[in-house]
Amino acid sequence: MQGRLSAWLVKHGLVHRSLGFDYQGIETLQIKPEDWHSIAVILYVYGYNYLRSQCAYDVAPGGLLASVYHLTRIEYGVDQTEEVCIKVFAPRSNPRIPSVFWIWKSADFQERESYDMLGICYDTHPRLKRILMPESWIGWPLRKDYIAPNFYEIQDAH
DSSP letter at 139? Predict the structure, then answer.
């Protein structure tokens, strides 16, 4: 099922994949990492001027990593805002996605957190460094295949 934005992107020859709608009726699109920066600029010009949130998750152990962007189109005098959810999947072996910091400044700490927890590198981000974990931390704590250092599970404690 194709939504309004997906139809507009198809009309203009922009490569994407429609993932349908979420439970609130918000259109969800998948964009390839190599197309993300140009499509992000187009979405901003089209009117999606507010990055509501950016987050990331590990799709499956040993699988892809996903960076998720919730964009909102805010216009003066319009009561009902238009929203879209963008998912950009990256391979675990080299998770690189273009940063949207230069388009939406609110992506700054959110992309840094995704880097810190999952190891997704956001190209052209001006300050991509750990924000929650110490710089000396090894690994990416929210990856499903992460093994905590010095963690010993107590077996048969009773």
Answer: S
Q: Is the pTM of this model over 0.85?
A: yes
Kindly tell me if the per-residue pLDDT of 12 is higher than 70.
yes
> What is the dotted CATH code of the domain comprising 4-154?
3.30.460.80
The residue written with tokens 């439970």 in the block is 23
Half-sphere exposure of 6 (CA within 13 A, CB side): 17
- Contact in structure between 122 and 128 (CB atoms under 8 Å): yes
Handedness of CA 99, 102, 104, 110 (dihedral sign): positive
Instruction: Please count the other Cβ atoms lying within 10 Å of the Cβ belonging to residue 31.
Output: 24
- Over residues 1-25, the mean pLDDT reads 90
Tens of pLDDT, residue by residue over 51-67, are 999 999 999 988 999 99
d(CA 5, CA 58): 26
**Could you give the dihedral angle defined by the CA atoms of residues 115, 58, 66 and 6, in that order, rounded to the nearest 10 degrees?**
-150
**C-alpha span between 142 and 28 (Å, rounded):** 23
In the chain, what are the domain boundaries?
Answer: 4-154
Residue with tokens 């990856």: 143
